[in-house]
Amino acid sequence: MAVKVYGPDYASPKRALVCLIEKGVEFETVPINLFKGEHQTPEFLKLQPFGSVPVIQDGDYTLFESRAIIRYYAEKYKHQGTDLPGKTIEERGLIEHPFLGLTPDPKLLKESEDKLCVVLDIYEERLSKSKYLTGDFVSLAA
User: What pTM was estimated for this model as a whole?
Assistant: First the structure.
């Protein structure tokens, strides 16, 4: 069964598509028109509670956030296709290196703070139902 990739064929979903291509994984795209607000429909919010793209469905498994998706497929298919995480710990360190030396924009900081409040509300709701974000077990997400 082919992996379903929800989102447009540009921006962050493109990162997931390139990863799947490099790993030789069969997939199909499910277009989501951001301009029409399709990412805010109740059906889509069941897949991705923040309303952002991309989202993948791999059988019964659903995952969102492009970096999480590419890490998932890099590990799941580590012996197939291109070695995306890098061959050495030094190569991996370069890939994971954060952006440093940027000057903060006060307006952008406020907008980001407002977005964070929405995310924290969703986390609060999830944590009211389980001990950790992913359930009642410790994981990298917890």
Answer: 0.67
